[in-house]
Amino acid sequence: MTDPIDYGAAKIAGWIKRSNPEETDDAERMSSTLSLLLNNLLTTGLILFIGYLTDTLWSTAAMLAVFALCRIMLKGFHLKSMTLCVIITSAFVYLASIIPVSPLWMMILTPICILMIFFLSSASIPVRMLFGMLMAVNMILLYPPVFLGFAAQTLTLIPRRR
Predict the structure, then answer these.
(1) pTM for the whole thing?
(2) How confident is the model at residue 162 (pLDDT cuts 50, 70, 90)?
(3) How far is CA 111 from CA 12, 67, 86, 101, in A?
């Protein structure tokens, strides 16, 4: 079965290609780029919309920003379906943004997350060090959405069984 986001991206790429065939890229190449764009727009929009509806917009946005930055830089596993990615990531980020976390738990779990970054991430050593330091700074600030963004991303570093 074709992924709905990939299907929509292919349709849009086809429309673009037909509208100006000489000046546009190959429809297949445009389609893969559009799939990523649609995935990111839908995920971000859905998460922020849910945050707005539940009156947790700012904490959800902060958590999403940290999660997205970590996701780009630290890597982690990816889902095979773009649509599944939108659904799971939106639920994951939103649920993590509303979890009440005490300062004690942040102090206990942050070093564990830092160790997971250092040992499980495929990012370069300087990137791992940067995010380890940012997490350490948050141990002083104790801002739950930032902690949860880091913690949520470190969960994607855990190797999955195949």
Answers:
(1) 0.80
(2) low
(3) 45, 17, 29, 15
pLDDT per residue over 110-157, tens digit each?
A: 999 999 999 999 999 999 999 999 999 999 999 998 898 899 889 888
User: Quick one: which of 7, 82, 88 has its CA closest to 40?
Assistant: 82
In angstroms, the CA 118 to CA 116 distance is 5
Is residue 23 scored above 80 in pLDDT? no
Reference 54, options 90, 87, 102; nearest CA is 90
74, 157 contact by CB (below 8 A): yes
pLDDT the model gives residue 84: 87
Any residues with CB less than 8 A from the CB of 73 and at least 6 apart, and which?
123, 127, 130, 131
135 within 8 A of 96, measured Cβ to Cβ: no
- C-alpha to C-alpha distance for 103 and 108, rounded to whole angstroms: 9
Sequence-separated (6 or more) residues with CB below 8 Å from residue 144: 59, 99, 100, 101, 106
Residue written as token pair 């959405």? 145
User: 135: number of CA atoms within 13 Å, CB side?
Assistant: 30
Q: Which amino acid appears at position 10 of this protein?
A: A
